[in-house]
Amino acid sequence: MNTTRRAVLAGAAGLAASGAFAKAIATNERYDRAIVIDGLGTPDDPDGDKYPDSNVFSPRGLAQLHASGGTAWQVTVGDVGNAPTNWDKTLANIADWDAIIDANPTAFVHARSATDIRAAKAAGKAAIIFGTQDTAMAGTQLDRLDVLNGLGVRVVQLTYNLRNLSGDGALEMANAGLSKLGYSTIARIEKNKQLVDLSHGGAKTIAEAIAAAKRPPTISHTGCRNLYDHPRNVWDAELKACADKGGVVGIYWMPYLVPGGKPTTADLIRHMAHAVDVCGEDHVGIGTDGVLSEIVIDDKARAAQKTAFEDRVAKGVVAPGDGPDIFTIIAELNSPMRFRMLSDALAKAGWPGARIDKVLGGNLLRLYGEVWPA
Questions:
Q1: What span, in angstroms and rounded, lies between the C-alpha atoms of 329 and 73?
Q2: How many distinct helices (H) and strands (E) make up the chain?
């Protein structure tokens, strides 16, 4: 993960020169007022490869962020898996993001509170939320969670696809649930007023963790398993349990929404609508698990995807439906305008404006305000 080029934020630089962006900006005043939060994703710079040693983002990257209307992104700073180097890599990733923030002080903010996100919206900036997708880097050393908290990590995901010392991930066939350490880990996360994230968990791990939680949790990026039985998706019972605790379920834009790995906008909305039916409209959000830029599928992209797939095979974290030619996109939304496009698609599907505002980011903002320090 090249974190030094993984974030951009709101800014007008270069916008006037981009006719495509100017044309794409809708006159949807409701959308422009909305808080739009990607509960797991990355605002990236499409020209980042041209400046690999710089933390300053290109005019085109700034322009697409501004045009997107996005308010905040939860970015992954934690290295996943059980390797002994993961703690050091996590600290290095945090340092990379801090350097990006320092290099662009007028363009974006590191969000440590819901107030920071609101302030970023008012200032025309983008808020960056630090999160992990594993607790393996902490293991039995729970004081490391305190260190991460002090560094501004506000979301802590309990497990990734495999088993760690806290519990089983989504791909563990044993589905053994939480360990004693897992219960202690949840308690420490909650003591720190960090948000417990149960994405990538095994079914039993998720159920037991929700039952153990004293504060609202999230499942930041998943799909509905009752619609498509895939281990990265979550059954209705756990979706509802998360909502009943006051949490928010984010629907991802991943291949796992449908058999064959090529979901459409209609498939995404079908999962979102099902989640609303199960959880209620106050407990559903979005977590794309992707980047903001358009993914241009050319020979270079195909080679990169093949390499990434082979790396995941070597690490043992490949999920059913992954493949060297499966891209993590929804083709119709493969654009920096994806959130605007989703908003329009939801409106065309008959969703009330207030509900659209909630799932675009209002629900996550409410959750962050309840869980994080003021």
A1: 17
A2: 14, 11
Chain segment 106-157, per-residue pLDDT in tens: 888 999 999 999 999 999 999 999 999 999 999 999 999 999 999 999 999 9
Q: How far is CA 44 from the centre of its chain?
A: 13
CA distance 277 to 243: 11
Distance CA 370, CA 374 (A): 9
Alpha carbon distance 93, 35 (integer Å): 26
Q: Which residues of 73-96 are buried (b: 16+ CB within 10 A; e: fewer)?
A: bbbbbbbbbeeeebbebbbebbeb
DSSP of 24-66: H----HHHHHS--EESSEE---TTGGG-TT--SPPHHHHHHHH
Q: Read off the pLDDT of residues 314-338 as tens digits, 9 standing for 90 and up.
A: 988 999 989 999 999 999 999 999 9
**Angstrom distance (rounded) from CA 144 to CA 94:** 14
Give the chain's length.
374
CA dihedral angle for residue 296, residue 298, residue 303, residue 308, rounded to 10 degrees: 20
**What kind and span of H or E run contains 302?**
helix 299-315
Instruction: Decide: 257 and 228 in contact? Cβ < 8 Å.
Output: yes
3-state secondary structure of 356: helix
In terms of C-beta density within 10 A (0-12 exposed, 13-18 middle, 19 or more buried), how is residue 245 classed? Answer: middle
Q: Taking the C-alpha atoms of 167, 169, 170 and 174 in order, what is their torsion angle to the nearest 10 degrees?
A: -60
Burial class (CB in 10 A: 0-12, 13-18, 19+), 314: exposed
Long-range contacts at 97-102 (CB < 8 A, ≥ 24 apart): 97/3, 97/6, 97/7, 97/128, 97/130, 99/4, 99/55, 100/3, 100/4, 100/6, 100/7, 100/55, 100/128, 101/128, 102/55
